[in-house]
Amino acid sequence: MARPRKTTATSTGKIGKENIKERQEQEEKIRLDNKNLKAPSYLQETAKVEFSRVVEEAKKIGILDNLDLSILVIYSNAYAQYLEITQEIENMERSYRYVTEDYKISPLINAQDKVIKQIMSCSSKLGLATTDRLKLIVPKKEESITNKYLRYFDG
């Protein structure tokens, strides 16, 4: 089974200057517009706020485009659901918050767990955590301009 192709920024193998240039051109062609990412009207207000927050933060590093819209909608919706479920759990009586009277886990806890898994899955695809962004974009090394023969001279 072949490994998935990496971007030129994340590729560590030797591929040559011509191949690098060609790959960068290909990557630029598939890059889509990210200026029109707007929250769909059917999202709850909390989800719209989170959607807009993520879009604004992602614009700074340019990792989202229009094809990420569906994942971003799922993430935003799950985030809003998480807040609602967490609020309901907090409003429950202390004695029934985590275990019901017949010693089963509350359905709210199960729902919260499922929503958390959905949030984590979508956030890794969107690069919302630092470790996920590091997989998507490798910062370019700053080349220091030094003469390798200067170490042989005194002073």
Question: What does the model show?
Answer:
- This protein is mainly α.
- The chain has helices at about 15-30, 45-60, 70-90, 105-125, 130-135.
- The chain has one domain (about 25-135).
- Helix content is about 50%, strand content about 0%.
- This is Phage terminase small subunit P27 family.
State the distance separating the first and last CA atoms: 57 Å
Tally of domains: 1
Unreliable residue stretches: none
Mean pLDDT figure: 77
Number of strands: 0
Question: What is the radius of gyration?
Answer: 23 Å
Key descriptive features of the protein:
mainly alpha, 5 helices, 0% strand
How would the blueprint of this fold be written?
Layout: H1 17-30, H2 45-59, H3 69-91, H4 107-126, H5 130-136
